[in-house]
Amino acid sequence: GAVVSQHPSRVICKSGTSVKIECRSLDFQATTMFWYRQFPKKSLMLMATSNEGSKATYEQGVEKDKFLINHASLTLSTLTVTSAHPEDSSFYICSARDTGGSPLHFGNGTRLTVT
Amino acid sequence: QKEVEQNSGPLSVPEGAIASLNCTYSDRVSQSFFWYRQYSGKSPELIMSIYSNGDKEDGRFTAQLNKASQYVSLLIRDSQPSDSATYLCAVVLQKLVFGQGTRLTINP
Fold first, then answer.
1. Which tens digits make up the pLDDT trace of B17-40?
2. Which of A47, A79, A85, B84 is 20 to 30 Å from A57 at the Cα level?
3. Is B34–A106 a contact, with Cβ atoms under 8 angstroms apart?
């Protein structure tokens, strides 16, 4: 089945620094990947849609300059949280689908803690 | 009205019983429906997908879809403690939208 790998699984950083999270589709090509954020006991919230070779599409309220998305190849998308602050501490999860109608497969998530 | 609604629970079910999880959605043209299971601190994993009216069974899991009433449900038979998790309903509404999830606890 489709496998999505996400790295790192946990990261602790100081306020003001930047953190990069990688998302890879291991056995399929993903022209589109999705980045979600989940706060404790809350549901998944879509942050942005990452499109290979073009700009990401951000959901309303998500700052594109703060959450930089790069989708340079068909198997890799990265999310960079720039100038992180404690309120950015959350569980970030990427996902992808291998064909248009198939369900999303999720990476294992990245637990970001900003101190 | 939220696009995808679930009862947040918690829902407690004795071991061996049937757990019933429900989800309603707002957009009549939705065609794809999914149930995900999420353990605490983990990312969601796909349990079931359903695209047409009726029931779809996979092992102890049965998904039920009623497009006329705009609801989709998940039944878990012979519930096990390992089924304790948050169950997320997801519906394709131009994009994939998740419900808030239902916390299910199976009591031994």
1. 999 999 999 988 888 899 999 999
2. A85
3. no
